[in-house]
Please model this.
Amino acid sequence: MKKLKVKFCDIREGRYEVFINEEDAKDLGLNPNDRVKISVDRKSIIAVVNTTKTLTPKGYIGLSREVCSFFKLKGEREVVLTLTEKPKSIEFIKKKLDGHELTEQEYDTIVKDVVSRSLTEIEITAFVIGVYINGMSIEEASYLTKKMAENGEMLELEKKPIFDKHSLGGVPGNKITLLIVPIVAAAGLTIPKTSSRAITSACGTADIMEVLAPVTFSAREMEEIVNKTNGMIAWGGGANLAPADDIFINVEYPLAIDPHYMALCSVMAKKYAVGANFVVIDLPMGKETKVPTIEKARKYARDFIALGEKLGMHVECVITYGEKPIGRAIGPALEAREALQALEGKEVASSFVEKATGIAGILLEAGGVAKHGEGAKLALEYIRNGKALKKMKEIIEAQGGDPKISSSDVPIGEYREKVYAERGGYITEFSNKSLVKIARAAGAPKDKGAGILLHVSKGERVKEGDILFEIFSESEYKLERAIRLANELKPVTIEGMLLQRIPEYRIFGY
Amino acid sequence: MKKLKVKFCDIREGRYEVFINEEDAKDLGLNPNDRVKISVDRKSIIAVVNTTKTLTPKGYIGLSREVCSFFKLKGEREVVLTLTEKPKSIEFIKKKLDGHELTEQEYDTIVKDVVSRSLTEIEITAFVIGVYINGMSIEEASYLTKKMAENGEMLELEKKPIFDKHSLGGVPGNKITLLIVPIVAAAGLTIPKTSSRAITSACGTADIMEVLAPVTFSAREMEEIVNKTNGMIAWGGGANLAPADDIFINVEYPLAIDPHYMALCSVMAKKYAVGANFVVIDLPMGKETKVPTIEKARKYARDFIALGEKLGMHVECVITYGEKPIGRAIGPALEAREALQALEGKEVASSFVEKATGIAGILLEAGGVAKHGEGAKLALEYIRNGKALKKMKEIIEAQGGDPKISSSDVPIGEYREKVYAERGGYITEFSNKSLVKIARAAGAPKDKGAGILLHVSKGERVKEGDILFEIFSESEYKLERAIRLANELKPVTIEGMLLQRIPEYRIFGY
Model:
């Protein structure tokens, strides 16, 4: 036990950390990443030790913003530091590394320590890599899923059963949620959809919806919105639903890994947290998506369904075509506009409407609103008769947006440049990854008006000089950056129908 | 590319880090743990991104001490920030996670990125856990060992062959290096011993030797010392020998894991870096050591020998008894004194001298100085005839210490307390871990004079009130802390010869 004076250090958000002078640390027998208990009056927390030569002088302790705000510390203060043991969950993480199954109680301990920020990045990485290499049983996945949900906010909704959908990532332009939610809600079914923001994509559904209405709500506010309108399109991260998920993603992201079982639990924990009874999972398959092969798609489908069973949730999976963007728009405002256009009955890419109504149809059938095999037709009818648009406006209003908005009101970036075909031929390929990079270079997802509008579709014939796509940006500098990238990456491939001449067939002297 | 003003942030030593305001980060499309290139004039480095709300205002960049000192930045300056790709080694780390063998070139890339601080803790943890779970082939271990050595300083010694020894950890009081090195060097063999400091133990050999002489030298200074005296006992960490090792240990430590192959490579990289041709590995076996069972000891022995072969190094392993401390002293000064006492021919624990001369003997035989089977006898002779003491004093002098020192000059902590037997019986057990905790509570390894002196040995009969051990400290506060811990942990077990009465044999009515 030692008393130290406080120094405020605004660093390393998201974890309780303290900075101790190397001399004091040696004296106390502390190494970096050790745990200490910090107490002020009667409150105390466990924090992770960093050692420093000069940031904090001897006799002082540097506290991260999280620690200061926990204790509501201001001005000259002292805290009491006590040595403490490692969190119990480290033992369970080691058990996972050694290839053993963990119990429900052990997963609970791990998730509690993750959420309370008691584990360091090193320890969380060890857990995630343990799951990546050793996998887990479906029982284990159900424990982890439940504990991720239960150690966070849970929605309590009145109108049951509760419907939900999720699309696995990797396909730009996948704005189908903005059609599915109003269709399903218009049919009287409850669909409290939470979505994510972009990490590496051009925009998440939450980024798109935010063009039309606020998306950040507490769990109680979410319940209110859904009780009023049946539907919602909110940012999941705003309501502390399954908060461990973001912390796991934080260590997966730099390694560019997506452990199969972590992906399952991540999706299902959010469904479990909203109390979903029936869920459709969209598995976009294609070489640049998370599901590159049909085998991988089938494995996901099997595991999602099995995990759903353990959780008392009915799951259906659809494997969808993922080698091109959905619709023509990529970027928050462009996608919000395209979704509104579809709801307004305007001409949009038919494959976009087809995908959205196909998935909405499954939910309508499951909800008993449509007969088996007739869900998609009914979903399309909800668009045609304007009920989906009306419901979307109700949802926009309930979330605090302007219900009078129409597609033509959506502000799009004013700096624009068209990219033209350098030769004639057929559109044989879109690179999803390159399109995303260009949209991001143009400013998406932060600049809502930035993005790409495709003017061609796969298989289409183009002439030299035809417009391939248009880049939108909110700044000249970012537009230029995006154009340079587009010229370099060439995200649209055009080929002649004769793909290759074989020399043997050449006529000599020709 | 963006220009940002510099703000100095003294945090997170050991890695190039920058702190970017969240707004700027969003603008640049940067997430925490992304890489950026930072340039000043014509120099540039790759640094890892942290985002912050208030530590650095918009338009500023916070630079860690490492970054500032790399650029020699002072006062108001601007740096240029450019987005950059992830290090190549992340791909190879993923390959290891996926269970594949890596090539020599791939290990080289990983170690280079580790040493240049281009990898984050998350990525290094992923690598270490990949090795922990998936293991590696002996070929792979030889690649990693070589690359750990080659990406650091290497000793170039004149007098070959070069001899070396290493003891795996877990046994307190294991000061045998302080006898082995002078014996072997006195016999004319070259033994450039590098040792570590304590992380979790009461003291490393470097901490002990530091009581007698400085231990921090550059590789060139080490060569000079060894060329002069044949021997050396230096701190390995001071000369940047196999510097990746400490970085790997840094992520193993908080998880309390010691991946088998990382342990092999860690030991052998340091031997490879000093150019060792013949190495004896001491494997202390016992329930609180790194080698709990004979099977584990044999696996270590097989793998050390096989790895040695791949590296062109002859390795011999000895399995030693590790369930009690070596000698009677635990703690830097107490151990240095005990080693000097042994060299001076004074009465010390015979098992300590036996172990040291046994291992020294193997080296003498390998060096052709003693006939097969007669090495230990000759080693003891070097102690008896004072040549080992004379050599030790030469080494102390060459390292900058006082060669006139004798065991009675070594300063020991002045705050002392004896711990007595609470009952009579036989000493059946020492808890190494508890003894280490008590020594550390008393101030070891930082306070050189702190530690424990055992007054009894295993199997010895004691009466109630006999002295079991004595605690030494340099401060009253730490002495009290250590006494409290000793009373709680009871590190010495005393039992009667009747260990258990079995009820069936009881005489009723007795």
